TrEMBL record:
GO cellular component terms listed in the entry, alphabetical order: membrane
Organism: Hapsidospora chrysogenum (strain ATCC 11550 / CBS 779.69 / DSM 880 / IAM 14645 / JCM 23072 / IMI 49137) (Acremonium chrysogenum)
Entry membrane topology: Single-pass membrane protein
Upper taxonomic lineage: Eukaryota, Fungi, Dikarya, Ascomycota, Pezizomycotina
Annotated protein name in UniProt: Ent-kaurene oxidase-like protein
Residues noted as binding heme in the record, renumbered to the chain: 465
Source taxon at top rank: Eukaryota
Amino acid sequence: MAANATMAADLKLPDLFRGEYETRLISTVAITLVVLIWGYVQFLAGPNLSKFPHAGKAPGWFGMGLAAAKRDFLANGPKILNEGYRKYKNGSFVIQTLNVPRIVLNAKYVEEINRTVPEDHLSMADGLRERLLSSQTNLDVVFGSPLHIDVCKAPLTQNLHKLIAPINEEAGYWLSQRIPGKMEVKAYDLIVRIISATASRMLGGTTISRNPEWLETAAAYSMDVVSVAVKLRPYPAFMRPLIAPWLEGTKTLDRHLKTTKKCFSPIFKERLAAIESGVDLGQDKPVDMVQWMAEGARGADRDIEVLSHNMLFLALAGVHTSSATTIHALFDLCANPEYIGPIREEIQSVTAEHGWTLSAIAGMKRLDSFMKESQRLNQAVLMTFNRKVVKPVRLSDGTTLPKGAYITLPSDSVARDPDIYADPDHFDGFRFYEKRMSSKTEANRHQFATVGPESLAFGQGKQACPGRFFAGVQIKAVIANILINYNIAFPEGQTARPKNIHKGGLVRPDPRQKLVFTPRS
C-alpha cells in the first residue's frame, strides 16, 4: 500500500498526458471547440427571428437548448404546432423543427404572397435542399433546374386524359398479380408497390412499370433519402460531407441511381435520337415522362445522369405521399364501411357510362370527397409551403420576413380549425361532396386537388404541387379497382383504424396494419 502511494505521489501530472492520452485529449478538445465555434457562428449568422413569438421549447441563448428543442418537436410536433396555432392564430410564430427554426405564417398571408411577392424572393428549391440535405443525397443536380417542375405543370397536366386508361390498366394488372385470391396483407407493402407501378406507367410506359428492379427502387427510394437526411442532420453542416460517404444509406442511394440509369438510359437515348433526327411520330409519339423530359431538356439537362436523377426525384415526390394518401383512405373505408356501397355504385355508374376517361374521373365525386376528407385528417406532413426567404419580404401589415429565414404554413392545424370546418375532428366522408352539391358556385370547389387558404395539403399558390392532378387520378384508379374487384376489411375483431405514427413534422400510416382482401367475383 505504501509503495503504491509512493508511486502515485511520484507520478507527475505531465506523465498522464503523454503518447496516446495526449493525442486523444487534444483531438477531443479540438473537435469540441470547432463544433462550439461553428454553432456560435451559425447562431450569430442566422436570421433574427426574435420579433416572432415562439411555440414549444426555444433554443435559448446561443442555441444552448437547441438539442432539447429538437427532441421536444420530434416527440410532440403536432401538439406544439396546434397549440401555437391556437395561441397566435391571428399572427405568425416560430417553431423549432428537427432542422431549422421556421416562421409559421397565418394562412391569411397566402393570397397576398401569391399576388404581390415576386417569385425570386421565396425559394421552393432552397426549402427542399434544406429539408432533404440535397448536397449529401445527390439531389442538387435536380434542384439546379426547373425541368421536373416544368414538365409536371405543362405536358403532364395537358396529357392527363390520355393517361387515365393506362393507369387504370396498370392498377388492375398489379392488383390481380399480388392478390389473386382471398388474402390478408400489409396495406403499406401492397399499396407502395401498386402506386410505384402506376406512377412508373406514366414515367416510361410498360417497359418501366413491369420492370421489377426499377419498381423496387421506386418503392424504396423516398424512405432511403429521408433515412440518410435524418442520420446526417444532427451533425454540423461542415461535417456532413465528411460523414455521408461512410453511411450505408449513401451507398444505397448510389445503387438506386445506378439502377435508374440502367433502366432509363436506353429509353432516353432512343427518344433523344428520334428528336434530334426530326422524325414526326404523330399519333405514335409516346405519352410519358421520358418523352416530355427528352423534349424539354436543354443544355446540361440532356445528360443521361441528370435525366435519370429527375426520374428518381419524381419517384420520391410522388410514390410516398400518394401511397400514404391511398392507405389512409383504405383505413378510413374499413373503419367506416357504410361509405363503401355508395362509392362503389358511383364508380360503376360513371365508368359504365364514360369508360375510363376524364369524364368518369370527374364523375367520381363521392370518392373525391372521401379522399379529401381522409387527407384532411391524415396529412403526410404537418406543414406545407416550405420556402427559404432569399430576399427580405415586407407584408402589408408590417410583418417582415428576414432574408435567410424559412417559412411554412400550418396545414394540419388549418385542417382541424373549428372556425373553418364544422366538427373538425369528426370524419365525414361526404363533407366536401355535400358542399359541392349545395350550389352551382360551389360545384367546382372543394375538390381533392383544390388548393386555397382552407386547403393547404398540396401547398399553395403558383408553386403548389404540380403533380396533384395526376395524383388524384392515380389514387382514384387504385381505390376504384380495389372496390370494384374486392371486399376489404380489417382483420376479424378490429373495427377502428390504427393510430398514425408521428415523428416531428411527418405523419405516416401504420406500416404494420393488415387488411383482408376478398375477391368479389
